[in-house]
Specification:
about 425 residues, alpha/beta, TIM Barrel, globular
């Protein structure tokens, strides 16, 4: 064997039932209470060990846009409007540099798999796609990056965008996105995206149903088309802030429909909490749908970052565990099982959204492993515990030393 991770606490095992994990040629080849070998080892010392964290919805091409354009001065934030003034002059090198800084933060926080949305239109062209495509190649030793090509500014109302989407798909984008809110024909965009997804046999991941009322849900059309095209398990809708404005009984009906046809939901707490209700001066709605409740109704859900340090989300450290904690805090999640579910929304449930067949600590799976400074998934979320080390295909890629108190005996005596 090439590497052993010793005394690991797996999420699904009872507390204190530790195992050794053996890795050879990049894959997990053994899981046992004790593996006898002189291979190099890492002592997890009873800490939580799981598959690498999964960022299921992020915009690497828009990371750190505050370096390029300041946050809007007024209360209204529109990603189409604020990017219009600088988009034509932005270079591939600039996109790569900002995206790389964002990516490296993600790696330090235990992420080993990313689905990133990349916008195309006649103004930005394929420069963002070129940058992220290169970034994915340069960092494939540490992370798998799947590109989701999408029309941020519109599709039916922006001639030339359709051709660029097709170019991205032909160049290997595995996912097709959408932002019908910014299209003059929202339903026309949704229908075209489903047609393209069928033509190129790719998954769909849409930005959907953000607004200040629960009216006019586009997700009903998405559910109908998912059923019509038989794409259950391959369609995800992100944001879905309108669900947070619905009475529980009405939300449950929508959730049941999504569960029945196989549409997943990605909740993006940091962005939607920041953007929602900006026209209110009191009783501000939160805009974050209850992912735990959706799961209760049979919908698969993930939690993800979306944006980092840009006008739509002017903060962030790329910690998925912090995002899980934020969601739990907003929705007042406090039971251990529900907190563990939040952890699963950045691990196993995200893996299902990405349709990964080889995720997790199982013999035969890749050695994509993170060791977290906690003893259980629920406490990791509750305490926002950091990853201490990360392995990608069995090779250690990240090391973060745990903090420690430095005793000052003499000083204590003086005080």
């Amino acid at each position: 064997m090439d590497q052993i991770i010793r005394r690991a606490q797996l999420p699904e095992r009872p507390a204190g039932q530790l195992v050794d994990i053996g890795i050879e040629a990049g894959s997990i080849v053994a899981i046992d209470t004790h593996i006898s070998t002189d291979a190099p080892s890492y002592d997890a010392a009873g800490r939580l060990v799981c598959g690498g964290l999964i960022e299921s919805h992020i915009h690497l091409d828009k990371g750190r846009l505050l370096d390029v354009v300041p946050a809007p001065a007024d209360r209204q934030t529109n990603p189409v409007r604020y990017s219009a003034g600088f988009k034509s002059g932005i270079s591939t090198a600039d996109i790569y540099g900002r995206a790389e800084r964002t990516l490296r933060e993600s790696l330090l926080h235990g992420t080993t798999r990313i689905r990133t949305h990349v916008e195309v239109d006649p103004v930005i062209g394929m420069r963002g796609f070129d940058a992220i495509e290169r970034l994915a190649r340069d960092y494939r030793w540490a992370v798998d990056i799947d590109l989701c090509v999408f029309p941020q500014d519109g599709l039916t109302n922006v001639p030339g965008t359709d051709k660029l989407l097709i170019e991205g798909l032909r160049r290997g984008a595995k996912v097709l996105g959408a932002a019908p809110r910014y299209d003059s024909d929202a339903h026309g965009q949704i229908r075209r995206i489903f047609a393209l997804a069928r033509e190129f046999d790719v998954d769909i991941d849409m930005h959907l149903d953000v607004g200040t009322t629960a009216q006019d849900l586009d997700v009903h059309l998405v559910a109908d088309l998912t059923e019509e095209y038989r794409l259950g398990g391959r369609v995800t809708v992100g944001h879905m802030a309108k669900l947070s404005l619905m009475p529980p009984a009405e939300m449950a009906k929508v959730a049941q429909r999504l569960a029945n046809v196989g549409v997943a939901v990605t909740v993006l707490p940091a962005t939607d909490l920041f953007l929602m209700g900006r026209n209110h001066d009191h009783a501000i709605p939160r805009g974050v749908p209850d992912a735990n409740c959706l799961i209760h109704h049979g919908v698969n859900c993930s939690l993800s970052t979306n944006n980092v340090l840009n006008p739509s989300t002017p903060y962030g450290d790329c910690s998925l565990i912090r995002i899980a904690n934020l969601h739990a805090n907003i929705l007042q999640v406090n039971k251990p099982d529900d907190l563990q579910e939040c952890f699963e929304m950045i691990t196993t449930r995200s893996a299902r959204i990405l349709n990964l067949q080889n995720y997790g600590i199982k013999v035969g799976n890749p050695g994509d492993i993170v060791v977290i400074d906690s003893q259980s998934p629920d406490r990791a979320v509750a305490e926002i515990r950091r990853p201490l080390t990360v392995f990608k295909n069995g090779i250690q890629t990240v090391v973060c030393e745990p903090g420690r108190i430095v005793p000052q005996t003499n000083l204590a005596d003086m005080l």
